[in-house]
Specification:
Pfam families: YaeQ. The chain contains four helices and eleven strands. It is an alpha/beta fold and 181 residues long. The strands form two sheets. The chain has a six-stranded mixed sheet. Strands 2-1-8-9-10 form a five-stranded mixed sheet, with helices on one face. Helix 1 crosses helix 4.
Length: 181
């Protein structure tokens, strides 16, 4: 019998000063049994960093052909495709052909190797933004993960400040290709 997903209630106060975005984000997010806490944290961070009004979580790991987050137009076409992790470059190239905008929050323990192997193939895609965050930042947040998540996220001058339970954590956003959307 398959293990059930774990449900997380999420509330994020987002102040993206760089883009002039100030929102209260609420979502119920399912963590697939094979998903790590670090990956869930990365998905939530991508939701905040690339926030647009209609950006929503997909079925993710359950459906291999969907991104982690997306904005779909009224005609059903994907307008904004957001990946998290270290996907194959072919997957990102294919997404860039089908979506108006594509973003990748590149993160994981093998990020340096992924950069060398895949980033050169992606640098020429005009509708792609690749950013990364320090893995230690993600790991620290994952260690504090609870089923009810309440974060205050401030993004300014290329730095993410995330307050949880009265403690503020910070890391820089490294833009690897494109510009921060």
């Amino acid at each position: 019998m398959a293990l059930p997903s774990t449900i997380y209630k999420t509330s994020i106060q987002l102040s993206d000063i760089d883009r002039g975005v100030y929102e209260s984000l609420q979502a119920t997010v399912a963590k697939h049994p094979s998903e790590t806490d670090e990956r869930l944290v990365a998905r939530l961070l991508a939701w905040a960093i690339f926030h647009e009004p209609e950006l929503s979580f997909t079925r993710g790991l359950c459906v291999g052909e969907e991104p982690d987050l997306w904005v779909k137009g009224p005609d059903g076409r994907v307008r904004f495709w957001v990946e998290v992790g270290l996907p194959e470059s072919d997957r990102i190239i294919k997404a860039s052909r089908h979506a108006e905008k594509v973003a990748l929050l590149a993160c994981g323990r093998a990020l340096a190797n992924w950069d060398q192997q895949h980033l050169p193939r992606l640098t020429g895609l005009p509708n792609l933004t690749v950013v990364s965050l320090d893995q230690a930042f993600i790991t620290t947040l994952a260690a504090r993960l609870e089923r009810s998540i309440t974060w205050s996220v401030t993004i300014t001058e290329g730095t993410v400040y995330l307050e949880v339970d009265g403690v503020t954590h910070e890391t820089g956003i490294r833009i690897k290709t494109g510009v921060l959307l």
